[in-house]
Design brief:
It is a single chain. The chain has four domains: 112 residues, no CATH class; 68 residues, Translation Initiation Factor Eif1 (2-Layer Sandwich), CATH 3.30.780; 275 residues, 3-Layer(aba) Sandwich (Rossmann fold); 61 residues, Orthogonal Bundle (Arc Repressor Mutant, subunit A), CATH 1.10.10.10. It is elongated, with a radius of gyration of 43 Å. The strands form three sheets. A ten-stranded mixed β-sheet has the order 6-5-14-13-12-7-11-10-8-9. Strands 1-2-4-3 form a four-stranded antiparallel β-sheet. Helix 3 packs antiparallel against helix 4, helix 10 packs parallel to helix 13 and helix 24 packs across helix 25. With 719 residues, it is α/β, with parallel strands linked by helices. It has 25 helices and 16 strands. Helix content is 45%, strand content 11%.
C-alpha cells in the first residue's frame, strides 16, 4: 500500500510539472492535419498488408466529404470552409487508395502524404480565421442594429422632452445625452442650458412637466445641477417604486460610517447613502407614515457598521429599541451567550436618558483631551473613528418634540441633547432625531437646522404639519401628494438634493436575524471613553436596570389591592363614592352597606396615611386643620361650597391651566410672555387668559410689566 501511494504521488507530481494533454479539447489546424495524415498512413499500411480492396478507402472518403458538407450547411458555415473540409476528405481517401495499391512505405508515398498534410493544415487555419472574422462581424452588425434602435429611442426622447420643456418652462435646451436607467424605471436627460439660465427654472415646473407627460402617480420629473452651472440633469421616473413594499436586503454585510449607510432607495431603484461622520439627521413622519419602520431600518444599518455604537432614547417605553435588545437578554435579565444586543444602550425612562446623555457629555469632553496626540499623529482635527475608537450615534425617538417641550424635566433633557449636538461633532458623537411633523416649532431651533443636514420627510400622503419648504429650504417642486404611499417620502443629504425615496420594510424576524448575524461585529467602547462614562455605562445591562424591558406580563389585579379592581367592577371610571350616588339606588338604605362603606373608607384612609402621610384639607382654616379630624374620608362632595377657606380665596386659586402657563412664563426668563402668547399656549380665549393672569398678578404669582402693546407678564424670580 505504501509503495502504491508513493507511486501515485510521484505520478501526480510529474503530471503537475509537465504538459497536460486535454483529450476533450477539439483539434486545431496542426493537430487536425497531423491526425488526418497519420490516420491515412496507418489505414494504407494495414490495408496493403491485409490485401484490403482499394475502393473501400475512396468510398469512406466520399462519405466523410458528404457528411461534413451537410453539417457545414446546417451550421451555416462559409462556402470556403465547406469546400476545404470536403477536399481534405477526398484528398486523404484518394492518397490512401493509391497507397494501398502501390505501397505506403515508399519515399514518394511519404512525401506526398506530408505535402497533403501541410496543405490541409494551412487551409484549415485560413478557413478558421475567416470563420472567426465572419462571426465577429455578425456580432458587430447585431450590436450596431441594437445601438441604432436604442439611439432612435433616445433621439425620440430628447426631441420630445426638449419640446415639452420649451413649451412649459420657456427654456430651450440642447440635449447632450439620454441615459436609460438599468432598472428600467426611467431615464436621465443631460442638457445644456441657455446663457443666464439655471436649473431652478425647470425644477419649479416639475409638477406641470409630470402632468404634461402623463406620468403615473408617484413618478416625477426632478431637475438638478449638472457637471457645471450651465448644465442640468433631468431625472424622469416612468415606473413608480414607491407603491411597492420593498423588503430590507437579506445581505447583512459589514458597513462603515465612512463609506455610507443605506437608508432606502430612490425612484431609480438605487440605494441612497447617508454619511453621518460629521452630520446629524432629522427624520419627520406623522403617525402611520412608516416612521417607526424607518427607525428600525436606521438601527439595522448602524448594527451592521463596524465602527458605530448605537445609543437609543425612547421615552415611550423604549419601544424603538426593545426589538434590538431583547434577543440578547434572557427572561431573568442575564445575557444570552454569544449574542450581543443590536443597540449598545437603551433608555426607556427619563432617569436612564439623563444617565445616557451625561455619559455622552463626559465622553465627549474626555475625548477632547486624551486624544490630542492621536489626532496630531493623524494630522487631523477630527477624531479618527474606527473599530478601536467607534462613533457614538444617539438615536432619539421624537427627540425634536423633546427639544421644544415646556415640561421642566424635558427641558433638562433637551439642554443635554443640544449640548451633545453643539460640542462633540469632532469627537464622533452625532444624533438622529425623529419628529411627528415638519412644523415651525420643530424646525425653529437653529441648532437642528444647522447640524441636521441629513433630512427625511415620510409623508404617506399626509399634508397637515408637513411643510416641506421648511424642512428642505431651496428645493422646488416637492409636494406631499407625490409620495402618497406608506414608507415613501423625500430625503435630502449634503451629497444629493432632496428627492423622492422609499424606505425598506423590515420585519421582526429580520431584526432578530440581524442581531444574531452582526453580534460579533459590534465594536466595544474604547477604554478611555469607557473610563469617562463610568458606572452608568458599565452597568447599563444589569438585570435591575433592565427590569422594565421584561415587564411585559401585567399582574392581575385583586379585589384586596387598593386602587385595583376585577373586570366588570367599573372601577376604571373612578371611585364608587356613596356620597355621589342617587338616593334611590337599592344599596343606599341598607345599614350593612353603610357599615361596609365606613370600614372600607377607614382602611383606605389608613393606607393613604401610611403611604403619603396625613395632610390637612387645603380649604380648611389653619386652626381647624390642627383640630381632631373626624373619622372617614374628607370628601369634597360632602363639603359646603360656602364654608370658609373656599378655593376662591386660596393662594393656588385659578383655572387648571394656570400652573402650566406660569411655568411657561418662568421659562421665558426676563423677556416674559404676552397674554396672547399665553392664550395660544393653553388654548383658551384671550379674555379668559387676561382675567386669570390679572388675578395671579394681584396674588403675587406674576408681575405685570406695562409697556403698551408690548406689555408682558413676568415671573417674580425674573422681575
Amino acid at each position: 500500500m505504501t509503495t502504491t501511494t508513493e507511486a501515485t504521488k510521484t505520478s501526480t507530481k510529474r503530471a503537475e510539472g509537465g504538459p497536460v494533454w486535454d483529450w476533450a479539447a477539439g483539434h486545431g489546424p496542426v493537430t487536425g492535419a497531423l491526425s488526418a495524415t497519420t490516420g491515412a498512413w496507418a489505414t494504407a499500411t494495414v490495408g496493403a498488408a491485409t490485401g484490403m480492396p482499394p475502393g473501400w478507402a475512396l468510398a469512406a472518403g466520399c462519405v466523410g466529404a458528404i457528411g461534413h458538407t451537410a453539417a457545414g450547411l446546417r451550421w451555416r458555415n462559409a462556402g470556403r470552409t465547406i469546400t476545404t473540409r470536403a477536399a481534405s476528405w477526398l484528398l486523404g481517401s484518394g492518397w490512401t487508395t493509391w497507397a494501398v495499391t502501390h505501397g505506403p512505405l515508399t519515399w514518394t508515398a511519404l512525401g506526398s502524404l506530408a505535402t497533403i498534410g501541410i496543405g490541409v493544415g494551412t487551409a484549415a487555419h485560413a478557413t478558421g480565421l475567416y470563420e472567426e472574422a465572419r462571426e465577429e462581424e455578425a456580432i458587430a452588425a447585431e450590436q450596431r442594429l441594437i445601438a441604432a434602435e436604442l439611439s432612435a429611442e433616445r433621439r425620440g426622447i430628447a426631441v420630445e422632452w426638449a419640446e415639452r420643456i420649451e413649451r412649459i418652462c420657456a427654456v430651450r435646451l440642447r440635449v447632450v445625452a439620454v441615459e436609460m436607467w438599468a432598472t428600467g424605471c426611467g431615464f436621465t436627460i443631460d442638457a445644456e442650458l441657455p446663457g443666464g439660465t439655471t436649473y431652478d427654472r425647470i425644477a419649479k415646473d416639475s409638477a406641470r412637466l409630470s402632468a404634461d407627460a402623463h406620468l403615473p402617480h408617484g413618478c416625477t420629473v426632478a431637475a438638478g445641477p449638472g457637471i457645471h452651472q450651465g448644465r442640468v440633469l433631468i431625472d424622469v421616473t416612468t415606473a413608480s417604486v414607491l407603491e411597492q413594499e420593498i423588503p430590507y436586503p437579506a445581505e447583512y454585510g459589514p458597513l462603515s460610517i465612512h463609506t455610507g449607510i443605506p437608508w432606502g432607495v430612490r425612484t431609480n431603484a438605487e440605494q441612497v447613502l447617508t454619511y453621518l461622520r460629521e452630520q446629524c439627521a432629522l427624520v419627520v413622519g406623522p403617525t402611520g407614515s412608516g416612521k417607526t419602520n424607518m427607525l428600525h431600518t436606521i438601527l439595522a444599518g448602524f448594527a451592521r457598521a463596524t465602527d458605530v455604537l448605537t445609543w437609543v432614547i425612547d421615552l415611550n417605553a423604549g419601544s424603538a429599541g426593545l426589538p434590538w435588545a431583547r434577543p440578547a437578554l434572557n427572561d431573568d435579565g442575564t445575557p444570552v451567550k454569544g449574542v450581543r444586543p443590536g443597540v449598545d444602550w437603551l433608555a426607556g425612562t427619563h432617569e436612564e436618558a439623563v444617565r445616557m446623555l451625561d455619559a455622552a457629555i463626559r465622553i465627549g469632553r474626555h475625548r477632547k483631551t486624551v486624544y490630542q496626540d492621536f489626532m496630531a499623529q493623524a494630522n487631523t482635527d477630527l477624531l479618527p473613528v474606527s473599530a478601536q475608537v467607534p462613533q457614538i450615534m444617539l438615536v432619539i425617538d421624537e427627540g425634536a418634540e423633546i427639544l421644544v417641550s415646556n415640561d421642566r424635566s424635558m427641558r433638562k433633557v433637551a439642554d443635554k441633547i443640544l449640548e451633545v449636538i453643539r460640542l462633540f461633532r469632532a469627537m464622533g458623537i452625532r444624533t438622529v432625531l425623529t419628529a411627528l411633523g415638519a412644523t415651525g416649532s420643530v424646525l425653529g431651533n437653529l441648532m437642528i437646522r444647522r447640524e441636521a443636514k441629513v433630512r427625511v420627510a415620510l409623508t404617506g400622503g399626509e399634508t397637515e404639519g408637513m411643510d416641506l419648504s421648511k424642512q428642505f429650504p431651496g428645493s422646488r417642486g416637492l409636494r406631499t401628494d407625490q409620495a402618497p404611499y406608506k414608507g415613501s417620502g423625500f430625503m435630502g443629504t449634503p451629497e444629493s438634493p432632496a428627492a423622492l425615496f422609499k424606505s425598506w420594510r423590515i420585519l421582526p424576524n429580520q431584526i432578530r436575524d440581524i442581531v444574531t448575524a452582526t453580534s460579533d461585529r459590534h465594536p466595544t467602547l474604547d477604554a478611555k471613553s469607557a473610563q469617562a462614562a463610568g458606572r452608568d455605562y458599565a452597568g447599563r445591562w444589569e438585570p435591575d436596570r433592565t427590569t422594565w424591558m421584561r415587564q411585559h406580563n401585567p399582574v392581575a389585579a385583586t379585589p384586596d389591592q387598593p386602587g385595583q379592581s376585577t373586570p366588570g367592577s367599573g372601577a376604571g371610571e373612578g371611585l364608587n363614592l356613596s356620597a355621589l350616588r342617587d338616593s334611590d339606588q337599592p344599596s343606599d338604605s341598607g345599614t350593612g352597606d353603610t357599615a361596609d362603606a365606613d370600614r372600607l373608607a377607614r382602611q383606605f384612609m389608613r393606607q393613604i396615611d401610611a403611604r403619603f402621610g396625613t395632610a390637612a384639607d387645603p380649604r380648611e382654616p389653619e386652626q381647624e386643620a390642627r383640630t381632631e379630624r373626624p373619622s372617614g374620608l374628607n370628601l369634597s362632595a360632602l363639603r359646603d361650597s360656602d364654608q370658609p377657606g373656599d378655593s376662591s380665596e386660596a393662594p393656588s386659586a385659578g383655572p387648571s391651566w394656570l400652573p402650566d402657563a406660569i411655568d411657561a412664563i418662568e421659562s421665558t426668563g426676563a423677556a416674559g410672555m404676552k397674554p396672547s402668547a399665553v392664550a395660544d399656549f393653553v388654548g383658551r380665549s384671550r379674555q379668559a387668559v387676561r382675567d386669570a393672569l390679572k388675578a395671579a398678578a394681584e396674588r403675587g404669582e406674576l408681575v405685570y410689566r406695562d409697556n403698551g402693546p408690548h406689555s408682558v407678564y413676568v415671573h417674580p424670580d425674573h422681575a
